[in-house]
Design brief:
The chain is mainly α. The chain folds into three domains: 106 residues, Serine Threonine Protein Phosphatase 5, Tetratricopeptide repeat (Alpha Horseshoe); 80 residues; 25 residues, no CATH class. It has eleven helices and four strands. Strands 1-2 form a two-stranded antiparallel sheet. Strands 3-4 form a two-stranded antiparallel sheet. The chain is rod-shaped.
């Protein structure tokens, strides 16, 4: 678009160039207004920029921003409208309201193609079923060795107390390790079995806490597709 503006400057012709060189500010502005009236916004933008290079008047910032908005240069238009808000000390309330409305329009979502509509997003409070299930599974898997070992050693007079302790979920491995502090016995129960049971419980508790999730629709399906030019995934459903 900058290249187009540069070409538009050349298209202004010798008359506009002579007007600039002579300092004929009014002639440049008149040419810009004529281009704008004819819908030739590239030329209008180039002329307004030439006029602003000669005189830094706030009203020219407005005209530049308006031309940029017409050309789809939205970021530049927003920047120049904001510059006008700062520089235009003597602007009326109506003028400021108009520029504020234009800025609101610039920040609005772009128009959608025909037949396409925005999908309303809603939120819901949900618990993490995956985290709850994973925590319970880890706890059960970690508890089974303690349960089996306790059952096998229950009749052993030496390990009887430690075996009974292993039947207690969560704290059993730590209690058994305290009763029999030998490293070959205590370390596996504390750092493997006991730690796994604690982590499983923590995951289960964390999963029960509600958290906010964003939902696009009630039924959304992702399906792969392939074409001679490539492939990917498509999403469809009811909203």
């Amino acid at each position: 678009m900058r290249a187009a503006c540069a070409i538009a400057l050349l298209l202004l012709g010798g008359a506009l160039a002579r007007a600039n060189e002579a300092g004929d500010f009014d002639t440049v502005c008149a040419a810009a207004r004529g281009f704008a009236a004819d819908g030739k916004w590239e030329r209008a933008l180039a002329a307004w920029q030439a006029a602003y290079a000669e005189r830094q008047e706030p009203r020219l910032l407005y005209e530049i921003a308006r031309a940029e908005q017409k050309l789809g240069l939205l970021r530049r238009a927003e920047s120049d409208f904001r510059a006008w808000q700062v520089a235009a000390d003597d602007a009326t309330d109506g003028e400021r309201a108009e520029v504020a409305a234009r800025l609101t329009l610039l920040r609005a979502p772009p128009p959608l193609p025909p037949g396409v509509q925005w999908v309303p997003m809603r939120t819901a409070e949900r618990r993490s079923g995956a985290m709850i299930g994973g925590g319970i599974a880890l706890s059960v898997i970690a508890y089974l060795p303690a349960l089996i070992t306790g059952a096998l050693l229950l009749g052993d007079s030496y390990f009887h107390d430690g075996a009974v302790a292993l039947f207690i979920p969560l704290v059993g491995p730590f209690l058994s390790a305290a009763l029999y502090p030998q490293l070959w016995w205590s370390l596996p129960w504390v750092f493997l079995d006991g730690a796994a049971q604690v982590v499983g419980l923590a995951l289960t508790i964390a999963g029960t806490r509600k958290h906010t999730v964003k939902l696009l629709g009630d039924h959304v399906v992702l399906a792969p597709f392939a074409t001679p030019a490539g492939g990917g995934f498509s999403a469809f459903g009811s909203f």
